[in-house]
Amino acid sequence: MQNSSAEEGQSVLIVDDVSTVRSFLRQTLSHLGVRNVREAASGGECVRLFKQEQADIVFLDIELPDFDGNEVLRQLHEVNPRVNVVMISAHSTVDNVKESIENGAKGFIVKPFSPKKIAAVLKKFE
Fold it and tell me: Among 101, 43, 45, 108, which Cα is nearest to 69's?
């Protein structure tokens, strides 16, 4: 089945407290053929949604209003240790990246990001 897009079957959870970031990511993913996309505006909502229905890929902001993104990352790994979490942040300090990777993140992208960068992330998890 080479004609079907691998992304089509992927489920994605977008976690960011900024609605414009979620909207941009959702539109980009839709353009790339991803149909199963859910959104959360907080860490608590993210964990609740993930427990209801696990996503293949989680785009997780580090700075959330209720939890630090790395704490949410740890909670997601308690539910599914193999979840593909990509941290997103406007602040890409070495410490941020290092802590996220140590906590099990599979990637890290810096805001603002391009559709090309999102496409590359999806390809990594095909």
Answer: 43
